[in-house]
Structures are given as structure tokens and as C-alpha cells.
Amino acid sequence: MALGKDYERQNCALARALELVGERWTLLVVRDALYGVRRYSDFLVHLDIPRAVLAERLQALTAAGVLEKRRYQESPPREEYVLTEMGQQLWPAVHALHRWAVDFLLPEGPIRLYVHTTCGTRLDPAGICPDCGTLVTARDVEMRPGPAAAVEARTDSVSEKLSRPRRLLTPIHT
After folding, report:
1. Cβ neighbours of residue 97 under 8 Å, at least 6 residues apart?
2. pTM of the model
3. What secondary structure does DSSP assign to 116-170, as a single string?
4. FRET partner for 70 with CA separation of 20 to 30 A, picked from 1, 87, 132, 159?
5. Whole-number Å distance between alpha carbons of 98 and 80
6. 67 CB-near residues (< 8 Å, 6+ apart)
7. CA 25, 86, 116: angle at the middle one, nearest 5?
């Protein structure tokens, strides 16, 4: 028996959120979009996700308003997926899950560090800059290689670009 995709009997905001972003691969698509991945082929290469699953996740996230589909080439027509403001608001949740995994599941340490672009200070587990005391939005975060960066050891073109310091939401193009 297949599991349903909703939690209609749960009167809970988290249940509503999980109906959209709780399926396998969905938060990784959002994570990659935060990292600047925009093109279908780049998501496909970086995630090693089945084509049909990727197409379904992109369609669902677009229909929900998390992503916006934009044309970047007219002939032949090609489109990319850009995080909307709604999608960018998922950054604190993605960051919190990242920090939780580093604290409890990754004894080798973080693969990536997230720092405030204004002052270069690493964000605390809540996504706050300890120097400034402000909650930092995705637009003001730089991703840098962490102590366990070599553990990832992927060689695809997207991973190589993501292995260097870069500001979140800055588009990558392979």
C-alpha cells in the first residue's frame, strides 16, 4: 500500500509544510536552488536524481510558488528555476537541518560553512551572525568549503563550482 502525500488529519503547521517539502529529494532541490543551481540539467547532474522524480519535484515546487520558471534562451526555448521569496524563506530550515546533521551525524565535521557576507562570521545554529546579532537571510550568506569538504569528492561540473566560496542564490551555469 502506497503512503499518501498529505497529513489531512494532522492539525499542524509542520504537517502542512511537510506536504510540500517533505518528500524525498524535495529539500535537496531547494538546497541546490539556494546554492545557485537553476537549470534542469544541473539539478540532474548534481543530485543524481531520476529524471521523472526531478521533473515532478520541480513542477510541484513551481505550482506551490517556491520556484519560478524563467526563460533564459529563446531559440531553442530553455528555462531555469529560480527561488521565489517564498522559496528563499526556506533557508533557515535548510541551514538548521544542516547544522543538526553536522552536530549529530557527521563526526568528520561540515562539508560547507555558511558565513555572513558582511563580516565573514560563521552563522550560529539558528542562522544568526554572532558578531552582528542579526538573523541572516540567504542573500547575505557565503558558502565556503568546510573541514570535511574532501569527503564529498564529487567531480561533476556543478560540484566543482560549489566547492569554491560563493554567495548563495548566485546562479551557476555549467
Report:
1. 27
2. 0.93
3. ETTT-PBP-TTSB-TTT--BPPGGGEEEEE-TTHHHH---SHHHHHHTS-EETT-
4. 159
5. 25
6. 33, 58, 61, 81, 82, 83, 84, 87
7. 85
pLDDT tens, position by position, 76-103: 999 999 999 999 999 999 999 999 999 9
Residue for cell digits 544541473? 42
Burial 14-41 (b: 16+ CB within 10 A, else e): eeeebbbbeeeebbebbbbbbbbbbbbe
CB 45 within 8 A of CB 174: yes
Of 82, 101, 100, 104, nearest to 169 by C-alpha is: 82
Paired residues of 83 in beta bridges: 67
DSSP label at residue 39: B
Residue with cell 547544522: 99
